[in-house]
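Lab notebook, bench 4. The sequencing result for the construct came back, and we need a structural model before the next group meeting so we can plan mutations. Quick request posted to the team channel:

Model the 3D structure of this chain.
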Amino acid sequence: MPETLKPYTMITDFISGRQIPNIGAEENRQAVTRFLVNEKGYSKDNIQLDVKIEMEIDGEHYQSQVDLVVGVDGGDLPIMAIKCAAGSLGSREREILSAARLLYAYQIPFAVVSDGKTAIVLDTISGKKVGDGMDEIPSKKAASDMLSSYQPVSLPAKHLERQKLIFRTFDSENVNVQRNI
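Done. Here's the predicted structure in token form:
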């Protein structure tokens, strides 16, 4: 492992049980995952960590990760993509919206940015804020009910390149993250 510029401690990840570096917004992510399980009814199996996102932009390969992708039991469609942030949540809205639009062949219904204490919940398709605060994050039951009648919506091709540029621009500013150590 290459030398790091700043030493870090290790913590036990709530979802995986593995030891992980405590850098950047990791403590915030732990708070969000605990909230999803303990307060919103999701199981640990409903939460995917560090979901790989890849794209081609102007002939160049770009790869990163989405902090959390949350689904419900037996469902093929995730209900939300979550960015765990330290600092201003508003400055990360466009990043998580783009990720939720690009990650799969359809748009994930909700994009959420949270610092573990509060959250901004966005409708991915419209880009509009639909909730402010941790309580506004859909519960597992509400997500399951919504998905029972949800029709997946693909991102229109004419918006694809712009969304890729938006994601890369904001994501490339994430320097204090595990994938960069």
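The longest strand covers residues 47-57.
Will bring this to the meeting.
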